[in-house]
Amino acid sequence: MKLLVVDDEPLARARLLRLLARLRPEAQCLEAGDGEQALAMVARHDPDLVLLDIRMPGTDGLAVAARLDEEAHPPAIIFCTAYDEYAIDALHHQAVAYILKPVRREELARALDHAGRVNRVQLASLREAAPAGTDGRTHISCQTHRGLEMLPLADIRCFLADQKYVTACGTRGELLIPDTLKDLETEFGDRFLRVHRNALVALAHVLKLRRDDEGSWYLELDGVAQRPQVSRRHLSEVKSRLRAR
Q1: Domain enclosing residue 104, as ranges
Q2: Which of 32, 34, 36, 105 has the greatest number of beta carbons closer than 10 A?
């Protein structure tokens, strides 16, 4: 296993390298002091995992992650930072964990375990290799600071977009995911119908199409409290698809 530690602070790099030496003594550990050096090291050494600081002069950690996202086979990433406001942005890259500094041995051990189990590239490979008859993904997943979280697709009633983030809403809870509504509509267009520019709903779980006192249309779904609004642009298609069920 090959690991790359990226941090502009030499003491922080040294501390992570010491922890890695204890937790993964068999691993080859490399280091970089800035974003551009990190990208060069990835190109030269092809590491399996990058432990990446976010706030760095010049090319910061999120910019490095965005560049790595463009690669055919990017390494997994563990973000290590002193700031927690970047956690949501981290979900849009191939991050397997998000750890706040000072990094504790126990948290790093858990993150390394998650990295050893699955990353987004591996998930994509699993989706492509899904057996015939499974109709693609059976679960919606996302890496959070708690590790890999999943919701069964069968339990999801709607996908709702808020600015640049999408929430999968299901009977077992909600999950903020890195997918876009456009990609979800393309992948699950046979099950989920676009009813608004900000919403996809599971057709099989629509209970009623209703109109409120102000003339706006919305859908009631079984098992969840969310009531996605139906735009005038999509109303005719919604009515037609509901009648054809």
Answers
A1: 2-123
A2: 32
